[in-house]
Write a structure and sequence with these properties.
- By secondary structure, the chain is an alpha/beta fold.
- It is about 35% helix and about 20% strand.
- It contains 8 helices and 8 strands; from the N terminus they run αβαβαβαβαβαβαβαβ.
- An 8-stranded mixed beta sheet has the order 1-4-3-2-5-6-8-7, sandwiched between helices.
- The protein is globular, with a radius of gyration of 17 Å.
- It starts with 8 loop residues before the first helix and ends with a strand.
- The relative contact order is 0.15.
């Protein structure tokens, strides 16, 4: 996702009361919410998807992860506006800036219920395949933090990434729960991301749900 450079992005993130800066903070939150399920979206962009999920399920914890500070600052701004417009506070929704390959340094073993991967960077060049969020090294990392039988829910409009992910997940030994070749032509409940709303008219949206 391209966005303008924002020199105040980190300052704006730090001013947000639900921006998580380190492991101690997130573990305190989880400890204070025993019995609640923890859901992650990796690469949340401006946060439309994770915000809607958190609003629909106020009984559990949702964490949006975005590596880019300028994009995360936009997500903070957008969430604040949404809460103000709707006179709500989604105190079950938190944001983090962390590399997905470091999840096991932030979360305890088998602590996460489900991971959402929405429209991840396809890294189309073969030499960059290991950077794809459905490559083996990332699937290994997800396995560490996901509960037994935890799930990954993956969406993309990139045919190459979809095919790569199918093969990667199959070779890894994951159990396929649902696979859609054109999600928007089904009646399956679907929360659209901002990217999805913009680009779905130009081609099919692919979706995979797998289980460890």
């Amino acid at each position: 996702m391209r966005t303008r450079f924002n020199p105040k992005a980190i300052e704006q993130m730090n001013e947000f009361d639900r921006y998580i800066k380190d492991k101690e903070i997130i573990q305190n939150i989880i400890s204070n919410n025993k019995g609640k399920k923890i859901y992650l979206e990796i690469g949340m962009g401006k946060g439309d998807f994770i915000t809607r999920l958190a609003e629909l399920d106020r009984d559990n914890i949702y964490i949006g992860i975005e590596l880019s500070p300028p994009v995360l600052a936009l997500a903070v701004k957008k969430l604040r506006r949404y809460e103000e417009d709707n006179n709500i506070k989604l105190d079950n929704l938190y944001f983090m800036s962390v590399d997905a390959i470091e999840l096991s340094t932030i979360f305890e073993t088998h602590q996460i219920e489900k991971i959402y991967l929405n429209f991840s960077d396809p890294w189309p060049k073969k030499k960059h395949a290991k950077r794809r969020l459905t490559s083996f090294k990332f699937l290994d990392e997800y396995k560490k933090v996901l509960k037994e039988n935890g799930q990954i829910e993956f969406k993309t409009d990139n045919r190459g990434l979809f095919e790569y992910s199918l093969v990667s997940m199959q070779n890894y030994g994951l159990k396929f729960i649902e696979v859609y070749l054109d999600l928007h032509k089904t009646d399956v409940f679907n929360i659209e991301t901002e990217y999805e709303k913009k680009f779905s008219p130009f081609g099919p949206i692919y979706k995979i749900i797998v289980e460890y």
